[in-house]
Amino acid sequence: MAVHRFDEWTSADVDPHSILVMVLGATEQHGPHLPLSTDTIVAEALAEHLVGAMVGFVLGPTVPIGASGEHDGFKGTLSLGTEVLTAVLVEIVRSSRGSAAGVFFVVGHGGNHPAVSAAIALSTAEGDQVGVGYAGILDGDAHAGRTETSLLLHLAPQLVVLERAERGNTTPLLDLLPRLQASGVKAVSPNGVLGDPTDASASEGRSLFEKMGARLVETARNWLEGQT
Fold this sequence. Notes:
Layout: E1 19-24, H1 38-53, E2 57-63, H2 82-96, E3 102-107, H3 113-125, E4 130-134, H4 146-155, H5 173-183, H6 185-188, H7 202-227
Parallel strand pairs: 1-2, 1-3, 3-4
């Protein structure tokens, strides 16, 4: 199915009955081997898959900077912070009224979760239809490890500097969370990696992406059914 792109339409083409799919990514360090846009690349690919699978969904523009304060201290990280990001998302939803029947966010960065939750709560209270799907693997490693490196080897191999890939902190995320939340990623992993990317592969990335895409479509369908 063709992927319709909102920002390629003219004003006359805009369908107010469509669902606007907004990608919410991040620009942040992903170790010495992955691009700053890793979360955005994965989320954009998933959103494109979603729009191709769902009738009436249109791919909106990407918000490429999120809430990435936990990566402070690493070069390349840009962050809006949770408060500002929440306001941005709410205003996107408000401004979409009359141009779309609802907004569905595809989120590529876990640190955006508080802002997304707050924005959806406020937008829903204002009467808007807003849903969300997250890019993530339940049993994957946390950041710039095997999971994300495999995904990038599948989606954008030209951006992976595999010879720089190195093992980071492989402690389970739940055990790291208290210190990570208090002091940031650099305090628990000097190289910015939470996991081990050295055995990543494009074939694993392809399999992971297929699972993520299927789960995202299921999430969007369940949300859409709940709106009717």
